[in-house]
Please model this.
Amino acid sequence: MSKTILVTGTSAGFGKLIATTLADEGHSVIAAMRNVSTKNAAAAAELNEHPNVEVVEMDVTSTESVNSAIENTLKKYGQIDVLVNNAGIGAFGFFEAYSIDQMKSIFEVNLWGPVRGIQAVLPSMRENKAGLIITISSTAGILSIPYLGPYTGSKYAIEGITESLQYEIKKYGIEAVTVLPGPFPTEIAAKSPMPDRPEIVEAYGEDEMNKAQQFGGIIYNKILEYQTDSQEVADAVKKLIDLKAGTRPAQTVVNRMTAGIEQEFADSKIAIKTEWMTRGGFADYI
Model:
């Protein structure tokens, strides 16, 4: 059955693929992006050519912008069946070399962006007693690796919020799940802000700087080795939407590089949490 789906961050990468994949399935897709009439005008025009896509202006770092886009969508379409929080930015470098203000800007997109979207759609979803919220997170949101401190922190945070939210909205027929991609050849790396404290980078010395560059090179080479295709993430989102309500996994890892180890970890964590809730006397909340 056709659904009304709002996807954020659709100018490129996962977001663009998610929007077109879902539109090709016959869904009505509201493709949200910022700078529709300026920097992203070409991307917006391309998406608008699809018969099932409508591009709307949305800056996920602005509560006013998010609320306005979702309010206008609800007025036009009557409801939003699915929200896909995709907009995000990366960060790679020494944690100490990122200023607090720079880290705040990363969290503004990766954490508060999805939170704004979730809070904006929940009232209508609660009223309709149905809805699905999918947030594109990262395998770095459950397993920490070097040189991704601010990015990892933002993804851990949205994972934690989503897990907690699941309990609170279940009785309203709403599901909140995450998709956790591994490394893929998207533009997120090229658009990642470099640390804004170069003097700290230099203080770590040439050997450590080379080590960090080598680490990034290993990730890039793994992308080439496994020929990862960003369409896999769009397909994972499509599969989640197609699943029957109540059967969707809380976390879906998309990373064939690591033979499913992150999915095993995610599944075992959920099992442990369920056991903890049961033993603690909170079984009624599961």
Q: What stands out?
A: The beta strands are 4-8, 28-33, 53-57, 82-85, 131-136, 174-181, 251-254.
